[in-house]
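Suppose you are handed a protein chain with no further information: no name, no annotation, nothing but its sequence. What can you learn? This example shows the usual starting point.
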Amino acid sequence: MSGKKEQAIKEIMTSFSEMANLVLKQLTLLEKLMNTSDDQDFNELTRQVRDAENLLDNYEVVIGEQFTNTIVLYQPVASDVRRIVACYRMTINLERIGDRIMNLTRIIGNIRKSKEYGSICSLVNNMLASGTIMVEKSLLSFINADPDFAIWTIKNDSVIDEMNYKLLVNDINKTSLDDETRQIVLRYVELKDMISNIERIADHATNIAEASIYSMQGTDIRHTGIGKDK
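A reasonable first move is to predict its three-dimensional structure. Written in structure tokens, the prediction is:
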């Protein structure tokens, strides 16, 4: 039984690792998509992002089934339960990151040739790069059992929030909305939606880091935070 249990847990971790790598690939594709001006390249990158999203959905289903079967059939010990519960929590957040990437792909397709997008594209790229690093470090914290990466990710969540606020305020201040058309206003709405999706990616990275801490230390810090008094 012990051998079968270990194999079942290994299969969960293998599926999780593959799913995590797929999300990181999606983020790389998104970065390329944001920086291409060629329509053919854009369409091809969009297709690759969508294909990856379909695979992510499948991984979520597979890992959910693996998780349930392992708990029911093998009744793992507490430390193993924490690890696979943390893994399942991360899986949900990885799937949601994939959803955000799809949202961003759609928004970029709508506004990528507008002057409004061109004016802040580099800043949005910086935000996405920061969010991607948070995802990477949160995943490494779990894979390498390194709580420092998890703590770094959680503490840096506020950095993305601040970038979100400054990005919008600065750009709106440079624009005389009274002289602009309804289309420009709609584009700003799209830009806000785009920025918010990147912010949510950082939030999901924080959730993954919190699950990693739970796996390693058995401490649930979702509502207490790091170093806060209970």
